[in-house]
Amino acid sequence: MDRRTLCGCIQTRACSTLSRLRPAFAGAGSVHARGLRPPFFARARVLRYAERMKLLVKWLLSAAALLFVAYVYSGVQVESFTSALIAALVIGLFNAVLRPILVVLTLPVTIVTVGLFLFVINALMFWAAAGVLGGFHVSGFGAALLGSLIYSVLGLLIESALGGLFSKK
Known about the structure:
Layout: H1 13-19, E1 31-32, E2 35-36, H2 40-72, E3 76-78, H3 81-105, H4 107-112, H5 117-132, E4 136-138, H6 141-165
Antiparallel strand pairs: 1-2, 3-4
């Protein structure tokens, strides 16, 4: 007789015996013939969901921050929210891929300038994203420098707010 238990496995003597003990193992995860399933699988699934949700919210808020930069500073223009979403994605990709390479290559200059050259690298990433995209324009390097400073401050605020909102418990 093929009967499935709550855990999905075919009911065996071990599984049926342990399933009667389920209330005793309520906090420990599901019990079945293959043994005790640790509860961290369920927590890991929730954690992955929280991390994905945090990434999505951060992306949306970064696009809104880019629109705010365009509103506050005339050297940066963003045509629409869709353009801001794409620009925020491209800036994030450039910061994840190109920025570490540039930081390593320019390490001597960064040391001599006591880290101030990192602002130039941020401005280059901002300017490069504007050069690649059509709906996002920066009028020059000075505008990229000031726009990236405003965008970085807003990014720090977003990250600190989301860190408290999506804190790991």
